[in-house]
Specification:
Helix 2 (8-20) crosses helix 3 (26-33) and helix 2 (8-20) packs across helix 4 (40-51). Strand 2 and strand 3 form a beta hairpin. Helix content is 52%, strand content 13%. It contains four helices and three strands. With 71 residues, the protein is α+β, with helices and mostly antiparallel strands. It has helices at 2-5, 8-20, 26-33, 40-51, and strands at 24-25, 55-57, 63-66. The chain has a three-stranded antiparallel sheet. The longest helix has 13 residues, at 8-20.
Length: 71
């Protein structure tokens, strides 16, 4: 439901993180979502997903995962 409320690229990023079922790197998210890993949209999208409380950083630096409430 959340993915439909987001911009298409942010929605794809959220879906990629959700499907991973484990913390994933920005590079892995970009590949799965069809976004350039050097795009400013990748960083902006990850920050937006975090600010909405949908995604949090994983235990390893540079990884991301769904917040527990959404798993």
């Amino acid at each position: 439901a959340w993915a439909a409320r987001l911009s298409p690229s942010y929605g794809r990023m959220l879906i990629a993180i959700a499907k991973a079922r484990a913390p994933v790197s920005a590079r892995q998210i970009a590949a799965a979502a069809g976004i350039s890993e050097t795009s400013s949209g990748l960083g902006a999208g990850l920050r937006e997903l975090q600010s909405l409380g949908l995604v949090e950083q994983g235990h390893e630096r540079g990884t991301y995962r769904l917040v527990e409430a959404l798993e």
